[in-house]
Structure formats: structure tokens, C-alpha cells
Specification:
By secondary structure, this protein is of the alpha/beta class. The chain folds into 3 domains: about 55 residues, no CATH class; about 120 residues, Beta-Lactamase, CATH 3.30.450.90; about 230 residues, P-loop containing nucleotide triphosphate hydrolases (Rossmann fold). Helix content is about 30%, strand content about 25%. The strands form 5 sheets. A 6-stranded antiparallel beta sheet has the order 7-6-5-10-9-8. Helix 8 crosses helix 10 and helix 10 runs antiparallel to helix 11. About 5% of the residues have low confidence.
């Protein structure tokens, strides 16, 4: 019997079914959601990849944002993004002419090589970021028209209209191969995009080799836990690992998050701006009314986000979020930089009452060519609360140094343990400690 290939609108998975002359509904073989299969008139040409036993043609359809239950990643298939290259390496160039190249071909090539980011920009070749280095993968540079075509290929019509209105557009995309964080924008008057490739499953706390105290934060039932550090220091990765720990061991409702999570002991609901909610802030406010136990916020980026996060923490939710700072003793100043002057006193008191812990991260080069995570950990106790209320943030480092019995770890002690383990060199420790004196 001839076969046709169907794409599930719920999980974006593809599967084969028998071609029949009447429309019908069947269950997706991946997520078991109902899929309407269109009628196939007698004599109509079939998808050449649809016949049983034949290899499916490469999928080039636009990433479909999944709107239903998520299928579990195939554990038998290794994900290159879980073990990214630790040093820049040569990547086989894309041989397809740029005018015939699909952005989905680029995404597949990037995922196969374990890249972290893809840059599409006019006047430059397609660039893959591998181990912090930009590596070209096309022999020619992109024209303005080619860059715009590749960038806009990821957007549907509604998203394109919003992009042309705002000149910037951030969203999450999902296809059969994985999940992507995308920013499309204008650069010097021309369209380009930056795409972050995300692993198909979150890494575990054991895989990250984090201090044991971090696992205890997954058991917190309310308050605010912040993951801090400069860009690309693994903040979101650690936060996602804690969400996976909560999802695995605690029957809680978690919303919203960035990486794909399959429901385990808990319930994880994922929301996409533009698809599930009009904008970031309205979606975040709505989360407060959705009976959450845990709310994950990608980044404390403005005063509105901070207010909503603090409200959630005050009302009994556990709030997880990231913040860009150079060291823990800059945390108060960083948060207050978003706050109107007349609200500073109130925010200080709310922060003192809700903050549970701060995990400050540095990814440092290891002897084996990889990277290891060094953490400075502040566990909030009464002394910390008094410091936050009374503007004495320069004392936070003293609290960390003297707070080992509470599970606190200074950056110096974290780095020294890696040196003693033989994971990093003393020179690496000295280079990092320049920012902690």
C-alpha cells in the first residue's frame, strides 16, 4: 500500500501512513495527539520518500513551533550539543550554492558539528561559533539579499510583520532536530540573524559537576534563586539542570522555561511569545495566575520583569532567573540600576526577604582542553539580609568567606578545589582571580 509522510502539528514529528482517498484522523506515533490526514486522490503523485523501506528525503520545512505535548528525546541518539567542542576545529564547508541554501540546512550542519551559535550577516560568510571562536563555513560572503532571505526564512507571515514594525524580533523555534533561540534584526540597515542552538535535553547537575549545595536549592519551595555571571558562562544551563532536578524528583508545576522538558514527576509547561502569549511581560504576569510552584525567567532584564519576579517570590513561588554581573558583590547595584530612585528602598527590602541564594559562575579552561565550572555561592542568612537592607553590599564577600557552615563557597575556594583535583592549572586560577580582588 502506498505511503505518505505526515507532520504532526502538536510535536512537529514526521511519520508515514497509508495513502487513502478519504480524509481521516489518526494518532501521532510520537506524541499520540490527533492528526488530520488529508485525502490522497487516486493517481495523485506521492511524496518520493513516502514508500515503505525508502529513506526519507532531507526535511527542509520551516521549524514548527510545537503546540502540544512534547515527545521525549531519543536517548539512543547522541546529541552533539551536550558535548560541545572544547577547542576551535575545522568544519567541512557547506557546498550548496548560497542562493540554493536553506537556513534549515545550515541548522542541521551546525547541530552536527556541535556549534553554539550561528551568525548570518551581509558582507561576511556564514559563521559558526565553536569553542568561543567564529569559524566560516561558506567560501563566499553573503549579499544583503541572501542574508535577509536566510534570516526571514525562520519567520512566519505574522512574525515578519512584527519584525518589520519593531526592527527586532526574538523567538524560540523548534524543528525535528532541536530547539533554537533566534534574534533577527537590522544591522547597519541590513537584515541578519543570530541563532543559539540548544541541546535536545537538559544536562543534569551530575553532568555539570556542580557543588552539592546547588542540588539542595531544587528542594526550595519559595523565594528567589539567581544565577549570575558574564555572558556565556553556563547560567541558563545550570538553571535548566535544576528545573530537570525538580521535574524528576518533585511533583510541581513549572512555567515557563527555555529548554525542552518532558513531564516526569512534575508538570512542565512551556510558553512561546507570539504563539502562546502576546508578549513577554503579559505572559509572565499570566503565569502568576496559573497555579505555578516554580517560575523560570530567562533574564532579569528590566524593572517590569523584576517587579513580577519579586511578586511571585513573595506569594510563595520558587523563582529562578539569571542576571549579568561580574561578581556577587555587584548584585544589588545591578538590580537597582533598573529601578526608579523612589522605589529603591522598597526593592531592597523585598530582595532581602525573598532572596534564597546566588550562584555566580565562571567557565574556566581545563587541562584536558575542555571547560570546568567554578562557582561562588551565596546562601542568604540573617547577616546577608541585613547587608542588603542597609546598603552594605561590599560586605557580601566577607559573608561568603565566613559562611562555609551554611554551604557558601568563595570563588577562590572553588578554583582551588579544581587546582587540587588537577582539572585546571594554577595560572588559570590566577587569571580568573584578577576579577575577585
Amino acid at each position: 500500500m502506498p505511503q505518505v509522510v505526515c507532520r504532526c502539528p502538536h510535536c512537529a514529528g514526521t511519520f508515514q501512513v497509508e495513502a487513502r482517498p478519504k480524509e481521516r484522523q489518526i494518532h501521532c506515533s510520537h506524541c499520540r495527539g490527533l492528526v488530520t490526514v488529508a485525502a490522497t486522490p487516486a493517481g495523485a503523485p506521492l511524496n518520493p520518500a513516502a514508500a515503505v523501506g525508502q529513506k526519507a528525503a532531507p526535511r527542509t520545512a520551516a521549524p514548527v513551533l510545537r503546540a502540544g505535548r512534547l515527545r521525549a528525546p531519543d536517548e539512543a541518539t547522541p546529541d552533539p550539543l551536550l558535548e560541545r567542542p572544547t577547542a576551535a576545529k575545522a568544519v567541512a564547508p557547506l557546498t550548496t550554492p548560497i542562493d540554493q541554501l536553506s537556513i534549515h540546512d545550515v541548522l542541521r550542519h551546525g547541530r552536527a558539528n556541535g556549534v553554539s551559535d550561528i551568525h548570518v550577516a551581509p558582507g561576511a560568510p556564514l559563521l559558526f561559533r565553536i569553542a568561543s571562536q567564529l569559524v566560516p563555513v561558506t567560501p563566499q560572503t553573503l549579499t544583503s539579499k541572501q542574508s535577509a532571505r536566510l534570516s526571514l526564512e525562520l519567520l512566519n507571515e505574522g512574525q515578519r510583520q512584527q519584525f518589520h514594525k519593531d526592527h527586532d524580533y526574538d523567538f524560540m523555534a523548534i524543528d525535528d532536530y532541536g530547539r533554537y533561540r533566534v534574534n533577527v534584526g537590522y544591522f547597519d540597515g541590513e537584515i541578519g540573524t543570530i541563532i543559539r542552538l540548544l541541546a535536545q535535553r537538559p544536562r543534569t547537575l551530575e553532568e555539570l559537576k556542580v557543588p552539592p549545595i546547588i542540588k539542595e536549592f531544587a528542594g526550595a519551595t519559595k523565594g528567589l534563586v539567581l544565577f549570575t555571571g558574564s555572558a556565556s558562562q553556563g547560567k541558563t544551563t545550570t538553571m535548566t539542570a535544576i528545573i530537570d532536578e525538580i521535574n524528576t524528583k518533585h511533583p510541581r508545576h513549572v512555567t515557563p522555561i527555555e529548554y525542552l522538558h518532558v513531564n516526569k514527576k512534575g508538570l512542565v509547561r512551556q510558553r512561546q511569545t507570539g504563539r502562546d502569549t502576546a508578549d513577554f511581560h503579559s505572559g509572565l504576569r499570566a503565569a502568576l495566575r496559573q497555579n505555578p510552584d516554580v517560575i523560570s525567567i530567562g533574564e532579569m532584564r528590566d524593572f517590569e520583569t523584576i517587579k513580577i519576579a519579586f511578586t511571585a517570590a513573595e506569594t510563595g513561588c520558587l523563582v529562578l532567573s539569571t542576571l549579568h554581573i561580574m561578581s556577587i558583590d555587584k548584585i544589588i547595584e545591578r538590580i537597582l540600576s533598573f529601578v526608579p530612585t523612589e522605589d529603591e528602598g522598597h526593592i531592597r527590602y523585598v530582595l532581602a526577604d525573598t532572596l534564597v541564594a546566588v550562584i555566580h559562575q565562571e567557565l574556566v579552561p581545563a587541562r584536558d582542553g575542555g571547560k570546568r565550572l567554578a562557582c561562588e555561592i551565596l546562601v542568604v542568612n540573617q547577616a546577608t539580609k541585613n547587608i542588603i537592607r542597609n546598603r552594605g553590599t561590599f560586605f557580601l564577600r566577607n559573608v561568603i568567606t565566613t559562611g562555609r557552615k551554611f554551604g557558601m563557597i568563595s570563588m577562590q575556594n572553588s578554583l582551588q578545589s579544581l587546582v587540587d583535583e588537577g582539572a585546571i592549572t594554577p595560572q588559570t586560577m590566577a587569571d580568573v582571580m584578577v576579577n575577585y580582588r
